[in-house]
Amino acid sequence: MKPKVFAAFVGPSIFMMLLFIAFPLLSVFWNSFNVTQPIYETVEVESCTAGFLEQTCTTEMETRPVLNEDGEIMRQTEFVGLQTYRNVLEMDRFWEAVSSGSWTGLQNIDFWAALRFTVMFTLITLPLVVGFGIGIAMVINNASQFIRGPVIFISLLPFIITPVIGALSINWLFRGDGILTALLEWWLEQDLALFAQAWTIELLMMVYRVWHVAPFAAIIFYAGLQTVNQDSLESAVIDGASRWQRLRLIIIPHLAPLIIFVAMIHLMDAYRVFEEVVGFRAEGHVISLQWLTYDFLKPDQAGNRSISRASASAMLTMIGIAILLVPLLKRTWRDHKGTH
Amino acid sequence: MTAKALRQPASLKIVSGTFLAVWCVIAAFPIFWITVMSFKSPVDAFDANPFNVIFGPATRAGGSGWSILEIVLALAVVWLTARITMRRVPALVAQYSPGGFVALGWVVASALIGVGFVLAFFGLLPLVSDFLNPLVGPLGRDIIGATTEHYETVWIDRGFSNNFKNSLIVTAGVVTISLSVGTLAGYGIARSGSTLAFWILIVALIFRALPHSVLVAGYLPVFINSAEWLSPILGENAPTLYGKPAAVIAVLVAINQPFTIWMLRSFFANIPADLDEAARVDGCSHFKAFRLVIMPVMWPGVITTGLFSFLLAYNDFLVTSLLLDASNQTMVPAIAGMFNRETTTTDQVVAVAAAVSITAPLFLLVMVFQRQIVSGLTAGAVKG
Fold first, then answer.
1. Interface touch A164/B348, C-beta < 8 Å
2. What is the ipTM of this complex?
3. Do B210 and A332 touch (CB under 8 A)?
4. Least CB-CB distance to A161: which of B19, B31, B204?
5. Which phi and psi angles does B65 have, rounded to 5°?
6. Which carries the bigger pLDDT value, residue A267 or residue A38?
7. Nearest-CA residue of chain B relative to A281?
8. Percent of chain A with pLDDT over 90
9. Which of B257, B287, B382 lies nearest to residue A13, judging by beta carbons?
10. Which string of DSSP letters, residue by residue, matches B8-71?
């Protein structure tokens, strides 16, 4: 294919990606070092109220934004270097908390709390998703041909559901005296308030995530199970391998590339955890990195969006993505080398 | 001998079957339960006793419920819809959609099925059952408390139909544009084999991993000030991109692009290159070969990729909630606004009804396209 023809085929796609992915990245990078804010001026204001015989007048210093000729607030963009990063990271509070060994002090700083939850969430759900995925795939594979279709249909439901709605539906089962909270209370014979403290909410979020992603893993592993070499299984039986040995020595190694694939996808997606915080209304207790950026981007009461802080926290989030991507890119590179 | 040696002991079969059953219950229960809740009065919906939630005594006492007759009729409508969708529709679509527009035919067909079902279920059914209930005696008496008033509140009073329309615009736009752009790129990359193509894929992979909030942080300042920035070029007509569905469509298409080209590339790589080579030998240009030889055989891959594009656009919360203003809001952010002001339990049940309304189209989607979704999921993983 000639370069010109190739360009014509991929051109529109590249153009879209450059304009809407690469350019915003540059814009975020730029914004994280700059702050745009209204110009304020301090003026002396004399306010008078009617009083007896004469007016009562008070003079106050008032800070207000400067307006331009059209009556709009004037804004200026200022280069601040790493200041915004310092504001997001709050390093002095961080070191203070670390040196005094205070975990709660650390958890009161938004960024570090978000980082702690995001990493924990990612690492805890990963083995659960892979484990449940393999388990479900194997029992589906074990089921008779007739019920596989309906079972796969049911299994797809948690995967396909809108994440916010899925989180909400789990939320409704547990919130207040929701049906499952009632069940747990009856079983444990004690009063539960699952949305009153952080760790129970975190647990529910992880339960939700595993419920949501396990079907995806299961379907991929199920497809992998169809291609297990039956001959090696049979020879293993002849050699006297137990069921467990066959699973450990033949089936799991066969699934290994798929396990890596699922793990990679899951790491990328779990690191971006966001919808759970919205669906469980957890922002008072637990937040994630992506939610932090989202929160900076939302207008506050005065209608201002802290674009600069959002950019800084976005850049910091991407450091994690970069670390996650390195092994994946290495692998792709190796495959590419192998094929050429 | 092998069959006997590989046969599983009964205990293992029982364990495996039990695990499967438990998983199916866990998978379906939350969705089933919110569907049940959405039809109950607030007292019943949040009752701690599961039987009260299912049978809804308070709802029945409130005067609305379903008799055995109505349940039978409702099940019949659901069953008929499913049967028609499974048996008749594929043939009808194949027959009536002009060549090459099968996907469009499916969109029209699904919309028609959806509208037909809503009309039959919420329009025709109450009329018929009101007429029949007094005639059949005990069968016509309410046994399960249920009410559709929350759906009426959501769709009519809270303006959810408007959000639905916006969702429709955004998803339709995203699917069409991202498929047309992505198909060309996927084909080009699959057939090129050059190092540049490889690097495009790698960059796309990196883009795929980016959190969406990072990108939105880049768009927001530009979109809000776009009128000012674009005015030197476009003059007075420069639009403010913030809040416009078109801008969101462009953003979602771009976000979706890396995934789309990866997936379509692997589908095109499975179409033998000899096919278009032959057309090229016969004197076709690349584009003509693509149009005449590849397009007729690419539809399974395109439909599958389209499904995932649809899911991305339909399920998105982050981008739409930050980039659209209130009047153009799609369904998912709208429900988040709904539960934020959820003060009474009635509001909560209304939010549940909204959630079920959002899930229903997805349910239909899995029902019709299960095979394609599974093949799409495995295409990337199993084939490399």
1. no
2. 0.82
3. no
4. B31
5. -175, 175
6. A267
7. B340
8. 3
9. B257
10. PPHHHHHHHHHHHHHHHHHHHHHHHHHHHHHTS-HHHHT-SSHHHHHH-HHHHHTT-EEEHHHH
The structure tokens listed for A311 are: 């950019």
Location of each CATH 1.10.3720.10 domain in chain B: 159-382
The sign of the CA dihedral B174, B175, B181, B182 is positive
Cα distance from A98 to chain B (closest Cα, Å)?
A: 29
B159-382, superfamily in CATH?
MetI-like (1.10.3720.10)
Q: Which residue of B has its CA nearest to A30?
A: B218
CB-nearest to B33 from A36, A160, A173 is: A173
> pLDDT for A89-135, tens place per residue?
777 777 777 777 777 777 777 888 888 888 888 889 999 999 999 99
Confidence of residue B1 (pLDDT cuts 50, 70, 90): very low
Residues in chain A closer than 8 A to B17 (CB atoms):
139, 143
Would the CB atoms of A10 and B189 count as touching at under 8 Å?
yes
- Give the pLDDT confidence of A248-290 residue by residue, as tens digits: 888 888 888 888 888 888 888 888 888 888 888 877 778 888 8
Please report residues of A whose CB lies closer than 8 A to that of B5: 234, 237-238
Kindly report the length of chain A.
Answer: 340
**Angle A295-A299-A300 (CA atoms, 0-180°, nearest 5)?**
85
State the pLDDT at residue B384: 44
C-alpha closest to that of A158 among B31, B372, B378, B17: B31
Name every chain B residue with its beta carbon within 8 A of the beta carbon of A224. 381-382
pLDDT of residue B156: 79
CB nearest to B37's CB, from A143, A172, A176: A172
Cβ neighbours, 10 Å, residue A212? 22
**A234: chain B residues, CB-CB within 8 Å:** 2, 5-6
Where exactly are the structural domains of chain A? 103-335
Task: Look at domain A103-335 and name its CATH class.
Answer: mainly alpha
